[in-house]
């Protein structure tokens, strides 16, 4: 038979008409050895490709052979049955038979055939793909696993381990929930430290449930601690995710006991303040302090026993007191964890690099004709000078500011909290850090004689909360609680609630929560709106069941829509980052057909629970709400929620493009509320990226007929354009001109003009040294950023919510510190042209001469008399622009490909990857400077005196070095009027 088979295979035109062989295969007279020979024949793709449709007719018989235990080649028969099913595109059966084939199904494809090409490669890859998908589905559902499938997946893992394709193994292990394979791959690696870091990045950014992430992080922490090159900073990131502050406290204590361990401890503390909640850091501090309490108590017991009447006793007492050198590191660590050092150094950076263009503010001020525009300009000034402590615009325009009335006055005073956001230090020392903020706001804070309306007082309490947002001290919280209890007007209570919520954000302090709930139960619309939001701020991310029930019940009971809106935001914040754990709460709200407010609350809660997760099934649920819910608020919140879900920016153009795919069609939706939501979703997901496709979708909305759609579009574009340059994003210059046009034109609608002015403030936020970010530098979701963005979106109803955007603003800086937390004078190298990341050029004031120049009128008769001059004029006009263009191009052509930046440096997001240390630098960073932020330095020559950066004085900088020092601005003296 072998001779016949060989002749048939070698015939001209290839093997065709296999009926005779198939008949023999089915024949009961054929021997098992002959059947095996025929199965081997058709197993060859050179044969099967031309005859599979004939072989398919006897597929049932081949399947019977594969199940016949007495047939010695049953596994070969199963493999043939799998290939026939593959040709029939019946992939499920193809996988099933491939599993029955066991080891006869080879993971490595056969060599390429000259006649049919890579057919076996296609088959093998398809079976592996279907196998992995089936395995993932069974793993996720928890159904019973087929042991044959498990064996195949194990073979796939082992093959890649043998090939040392460890990244593939880890990626597959994360997809298939195989924690054991993650551990196996890392242990096998020769560069386990690098692989561990990459795995942490994958685990923190991948879409997975909380339980799996927790198990993975536990394993990674174990591997990190057993690694000879333990990366404590990375371990800290894992422990934050695992919510294990006690372990971090113990780690810090061990590090502080080792030489140069304090540098790593300081770096961890800075990262903790950036990544963890206020409650988490407080628990770390408590754990760390507990290790030093016994020694402190012992010293106290020894002191009374020492006789103080003799000089010797005095000497002993001095020896027992802690030395400054010993206590300083501990004090520094505590100051870092409280956020004092971060805020102080960020303030120095913002003061030194303040590039706010005052001419923009002047032009906006000169064009203000309505109370709405006046209000917007004051808030834009606050945003432009966020954290810079520069209040020149306020001091220079007191008469103009005095026009603010009622709630505009509240907003005007609250902007002081933006400008002086970091100003709670006296002479940059930690001692008495509350007094600076209190002294600054003293003219506006509540006094013994209550004001009739209390707008200034309420605004000052809100400002105090903004200054201490997410790092409120016990004294600050106590003061705000006292003011809330003593408040007599709704405006003061409104400001006190907002300030208290910000200062106690994330602490889950029950006493503060209960006091805010009491304010809510007053059933005052203005007070209740702020109290509902503040309750959510205090309990953010807690998913506290009693708090949820209290807030939902009052949402149903109250008749005030303002209170309902405040509670909606507060309830949403309870679910922050809790993902699947929040589903039982979301389900109680999202399908309540009789109450649109509860449905919109459920949608907002869904957005916060899954923020940054990118979960496709949740996005589908939100899109379903857009399509089916009749209420415009629900639709708008659902579309904006997509932006929150897809706001991940670890890989800068991945999530923005996904958001564009989901929201792109909604930008053209017939419902204007959906279009507004789509604009905001794009702005949130693409913030700070300059993503061109999102910009092209938003630009048509600038000419929408609805004023609020234009408002949303211009603010969303400001999110995307923030810190973009003309070199990297050419349209940013046109957008700035568009903003100027919208703010100065008399015919522009007041709502759109409000949006344009706020957008200008966002575009130049923090003296052009900040960006909008919902995620921190490690790629994890930033609680303050998300909370700030969510609360800011409520400006749709209440303009006083605009300052909340400051929580989502992050300084784009690189600040290097020595062991003493001082900024040394040093430089960093940026391997890119300076113009790529430069500040935008300042506006130039219009010169009077330009208005006086008028072209000479040329009569038609003059043209006839002087034809030669006409030609000469043409030549002059053509040459001037060319000369100007040559001048402009001359600078970029000669620009060096690299440049250096000084500490503290402004480093925009795209610039980070270009950074490197200068050669022969005196300092070595504890972690890579490409992360940005605050980096601790190891001094290679500690014996030499370091040259330090001169500290800037709070209050802003001036261009004239001979100018007298600015004094704090005067108190507002505003007569309240109803008009």
From TrEMBL:
Domain 26S proteasome regulatory subunit RPN2 C-terminal: 812-949
InterPro entries named among the record's database cross-references: 26S_Psome_Rpn2 (IPR016642), ARM-like (IPR011989), ARM-type_fold (IPR016024), Proteasome/cyclosome_rpt (IPR002015), PSMD1_RPN2_N (IPR048570), RPN2_C (IPR040623)
Subunit text: Component of the 19S proteasome regulatory particle complex. The 26S proteasome consists of a 20S core particle (CP) and two 19S regulatory subunits (RP).
Coiled-coil parts of chain: none
Record-level Gene Ontology MF annotations: enzyme regulator activity
PANTHER family: 26S PROTEASOME NON-ATPASE REGULATORY SUBUNIT, 26S PROTEASOME NON-ATPASE REGULATORY SUBUNIT 1
Compositionally biased spans, kind Basic and acidic residues: 313-326, 869-892, 966-979
Function per UniProt: Component of the 26S proteasome, a multiprotein complex involved in the ATP-dependent degradation of ubiquitinated proteins. This complex plays a key role in the maintenance of protein homeostasis by removing misfolded or damaged proteins, which could impair cellular functions, and by removing proteins whose functions are no longer required. Therefore, the proteasome participates in numerous cellular processes, including cell cycle progression, apoptosis, or DNA damage repair.
Region: Disordered, residue numbers: 292-330, 865-903, 958-979
Keywords: Proteasome, Repeat
This protein's name: 26S proteasome non-ATPase regulatory subunit 1
Family: Belongs to the proteasome subunit S1 family.
Pfam families with a match to the protein in the record: HEAT_2, PC_rep, RPN2_C, RPN2_N
GO cellular component: nucleus; proteasome regulatory particle, base subcomplex; proteasome storage granule
UniProt keyword DNA-binding, yes or no: no
SUPFAM superfamilies assigned to the protein according to its UniProt record, in alphabetical order: ARM repeat
Domain 26S proteasome non-ATPase regulatory subunit 1/RPN2 N-terminal: 47-354
């Amino acid at each position: 038979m072998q001779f016949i088979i060989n002749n048939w295979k070698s015939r001209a035109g290839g093997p065709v008409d296999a009926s005779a062989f198939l008949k023999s295969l089915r024949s009961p007279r054929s021997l098992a050895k002959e059947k095996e020979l025929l199965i081997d024949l058709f197993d060859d793709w050179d044969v099967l490709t031309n005859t599979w449709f004939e072989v398919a007719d006897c597929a049932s018989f081949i399947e019977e052979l594969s199940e016949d235990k007495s047939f010695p080649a049953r596994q070969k028969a199963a493999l043939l049955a799998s290939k026939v099913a593959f040709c029939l595109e019946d992939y499920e059966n193809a996988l099933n038979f491939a599993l029955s084939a066991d080891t006869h199904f080879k993971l490595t494809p056969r060599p390429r055939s000259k006649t049919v090409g890579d057919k076996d490669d296609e088959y093998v890859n398809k079976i592996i793909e279907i196998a992995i998908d089936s395995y993932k589905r069974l793993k996720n559902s928890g159904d019973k696993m087929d042991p044959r499938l498990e064996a195949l997946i194990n073979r796939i893992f082992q093959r890649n381990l043998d090939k040392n394709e460890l990244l593939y193994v880890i990626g597959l292990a994360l997809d298939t929930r195989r924690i054991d394979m993650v551990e196996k791959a890392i242990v096998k690696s020769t560069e386990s430290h690098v692989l561990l870091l990459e795995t942490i990045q994958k685990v923190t950014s991948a879409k997975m449930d909380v339980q799996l992430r927790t198990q993975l992080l536990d394993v990674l922490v174990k591997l990190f601690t057993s690694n000879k090159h333990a990366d404590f900073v990375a371990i800290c990131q894992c422990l934050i995710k695992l919510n294990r502050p006690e372990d971090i406290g113990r780690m810090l204590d061990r590090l502080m006991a080792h030489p140069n361990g304090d540098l790593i401890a300081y770096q961890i503390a800075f990262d903790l303040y950036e990544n963890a909640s206020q409650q988490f850091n407080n628990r770390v501090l408590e754990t760390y302090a507990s290790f030093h309490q016994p020694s402190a108590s012992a010293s106290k017991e020894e002191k009374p026993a020492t006789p103080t009447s003799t000089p010797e006793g005095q000497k002993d007492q001095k020896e027992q007191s802690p030395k400054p050198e010993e206590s300083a590191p501990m004090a520094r660590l505590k100051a870092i964890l409280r956020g004092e050092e971060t805020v102080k150094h960020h303030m120095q950076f913002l003061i030194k690099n303040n590039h706010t263009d005052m001419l923009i503010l002047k032009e906006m001020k000169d064009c203000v004709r309505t109370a709405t525009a006046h209000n917007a300009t004051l808030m834009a000034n606050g945003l432009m000078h966020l954290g810079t402590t520069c209040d020149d615009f306020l001091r220079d325009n007191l008469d103009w500011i005095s026009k603010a009335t009622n709630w505009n006055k509240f907003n005007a005073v609250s902007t002081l909290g933006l400008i002086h956001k970091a100003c709670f230090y006296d002479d940059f020392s930690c001692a008495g850090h509350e007094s600076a903020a209190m002294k600054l706001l003293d003219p506006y804070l509540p006094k013994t004689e209550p004001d009739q309306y209390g707008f200034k007082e309420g605004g000052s309490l809100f400002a105090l909360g903004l200054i201490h947002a997410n790092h409120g001290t016990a004294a600050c919280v106590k003061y705000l609680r006292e003011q809330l209890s003593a408040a007599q007007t709704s405006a003061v209570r409104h400001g006190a609630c907002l300030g208290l919520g910000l200062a106690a954000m994330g602490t889950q302090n029950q006493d503060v929560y209960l006091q805010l709930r009491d304010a809510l139960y007053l059933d005052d619309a203005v007070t209740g709106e702020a109290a509902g939001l503040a309750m959510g701020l205090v309990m953010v991310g807690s998913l506290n069941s009693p708090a949820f029930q209290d807030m939902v019940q009052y949402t149903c009971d109250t008749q005030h829509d303002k209170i309902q809106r405040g509670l909606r935001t507060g309830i949403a914040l309870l679910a922050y980052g809790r993902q699947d754990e929040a589903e039982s709460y979301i389900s109680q709200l999202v399908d309540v057909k009789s109450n649109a407010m509860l449905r919109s609350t459920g949608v907002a809660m869904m957005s916060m629970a899954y923020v940054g997760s990118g979960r496709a099934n949740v996005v589908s649920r939100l899109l379903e709400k857009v399509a089916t819910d009749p209420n415009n608020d629900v639709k708008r919140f659902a579309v904006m929620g997509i932006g929150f879900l897809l706001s991940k920016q670890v890989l800068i153009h991945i999530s923005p493009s996904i958001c564009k795919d989901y929201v792109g069609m909604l930008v053209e939706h017939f419902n204007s509320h959906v279009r507004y939501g789509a604009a905001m979703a794009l702005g949130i997901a693409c913030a700070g990226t300059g993503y061109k496709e999102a910009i092209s979708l938003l630009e048509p909305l600038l000419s929408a007929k609805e004023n609020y759609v234009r408002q949303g579009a211009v603010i969303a574009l400001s999110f995307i354009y923030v810190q973009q340059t003309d070199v990297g994003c050419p349209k940013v210059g046109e957008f700035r001109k568009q903003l100027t046009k919208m703010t100065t034109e008399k015919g522009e609608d007041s709502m759109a003009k409000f949006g344009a002015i706020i957008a200008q403030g966002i575009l130049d936020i923090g003296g052009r040294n900040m960006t909008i970010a919902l995620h921190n530098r490690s790629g994890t979701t930033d609680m303050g950023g998300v909370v700030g963005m969510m609360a800011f979106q409520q400006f749709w109803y209440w303009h006083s919510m605009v300052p909340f955007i400051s929580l989502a603003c992050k300084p784009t800086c690189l600040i290097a510190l020595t062991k003493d937390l001082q900024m040394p004078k040093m430089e960093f190298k940026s391997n890119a042209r300076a113009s790529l990341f430069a500040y935008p050029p300042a506006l130039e004031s219009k010169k009077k001469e330009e208005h006086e120049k008028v072209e000479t009128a040329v009569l038609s008769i003059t043209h006839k008399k002087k034809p030669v001059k006409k030609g000469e004029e043409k030549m002059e006009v053509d040459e001037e622009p060319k000369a100007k263009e040559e001048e402009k191009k001359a600078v970029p052509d000669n620009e060096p490909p690299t440049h250096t930046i000084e500490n503290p440096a402004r480093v925009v997001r795209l610039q980070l990857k270009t950074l490197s240390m200068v050669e022969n630098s005196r300092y070595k960073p504890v972690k890579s400077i490409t992360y940005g932020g605050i980096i601790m330095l190891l001094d290679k020559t500690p014996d030499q005196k370091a040259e330090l950066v001169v500290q800037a004085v709070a209050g802003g900088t001036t261009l004239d070095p001979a100018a007298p020092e600015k004094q704090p601005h005067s108190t507002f003296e505003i007569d309240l009027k109803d008009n």
